[in-house]
Amino acid sequence: MVGNLKVADLIPADCKELLEQFSHLAESTQTEYKLALIAVLDVAKRHRWLLENPARNIPNKTKKYNRTEEEI
């Protein structure tokens, strides 16, 4: 569980797990939450509480636009 980890111990998989809890929400809301997580972890990095921001390399979800109905 992410809530029990120290910021310095976070890895990208932990960030993905946290963001998956919001998968039932609209894509735009999920994107806003991801950006908020990135911003918070950037502050932690500036304070040297962690070396790298583990949320920075999480890919965005693929948009459903510009794909065929079968691909969706």
3D structure, described in words:
There is one protein chain. 40% of the residues lie in helices and 0% in strands. It starts with 11 loop residues before the first helix and ends in a 26-residue tail after the last helix. The protein is mainly α and 72 residues long. The longest helix is centred in the middle third of the chain and has 20 residues, at 27-46. The chain has helices spanning 12-20, 27-46.
How is the secondary structure organized here?
Layout: H1 12-20, H2 27-46
Strand content: under 5%
Shape: elongated
State the distance separating the first and last CA atoms. Answer: 31 Å
Q: Given the helix and strand composition, which structural class is it?
A: mainly alpha
SSE topology string: HH
The count of β-strands is 0
Number of helices: 2
Mean pLDDT over the full residue set: 86
Q: Helix share of residues?
A: 40-55%
What Rg do the Cα atoms give?
A: 14 Å
Largest sheet: none
Outline of the structure:
The protein is mainly α and 72 residues long. It is built from 2 helices and no strands.
